[in-house]
Amino acid sequence: ETGVTQSPTHLIKTRGQQVTLRCSSQSGHNTVSWYQQALGQGPQFIFQYYREEENGRGNFPPRFSGLQFPNYSSELNVNALELDDSALYLCASSPTGTRYLGTQYFGPGTRLTVL
Amino acid sequence: ILNVEQSPQSLHVQEGDSTNFTCSFPSSNFYALHWYRWETAKSPEALFVMTLNGDEKKKGRISATLNTKEGYSYLYIKGSQPEDSATYLCAFNSNTGNQFYFGTGTSLTVIP
How many CA atoms lie within 13 A of A114 on its CB side? Predict the structure, then answer.
């Protein structure tokens, strides 16, 4: 069973640029959630994708957008990067998106630095 | 904004000591409470998911309890070992949506 993987591991961008982060779900999982963890904070929910559709969104502006592909891998896109976007971005997969009582399986994260 | 708090923020204990920490969450709209263990440079690893008031879960030397009426969960580690050193995160799942609300974590260091 393959775990959740994320790429790249680290990334440095400048303010105003755009970035794409990638996540491969654990085998058999059709739901992906993305989280942002800023320094000293817990992970904050960005959004969730279930079977290629957005299935819930946290308090993040529209310049944070996502995609889920037919193989259930996912991308997080951030436009017009700001310094405050510097954070660890985690993705997590789970077998189903709706009222699932089991756990989410996390990847190791992508560390984004915005200069 | 839904608030999930963990205490203490960090903890240093000697090998063999037992320890516990707290996760506080809203007592309304409860659906589930999750505990994760997160070692540096690794992925967060699920420990427990708890859904019923009074739930107690155990995995080896680690156990957790849940009180949904007063909005708290305790995580206990018996006979701490250096390999228990990690950040322990709790996440609250309300019945009004799919998202997890995480606390800021408790960083545990076990000194050999």
Answer: 18
Q: Are B39 and B46 in contact (CB under 8 A)?
A: no
Distance CA A65, CA A79 (A): 8
Condensed to tens digits (0 to 9), the pLDDT of residues A35-72 reads 999 998 999 999 999 889 998 899 999 999 999 999 88
Strands B72-77 and B62-67: antiparallel
Q: How far apart are CA B82 and CA B95, in angstroms?
A: 37
CB-based contact, B99 to chain A, within 8 Å: yes
Asked if the C-beta of B71 comes within 8 angstroms of chain A's C-beta atoms, the answer is: no
Nearest CB to B99: which of A4, A56, A105?
Answer: A56
- CA of B37: which chain A residue's CA is closest? A106
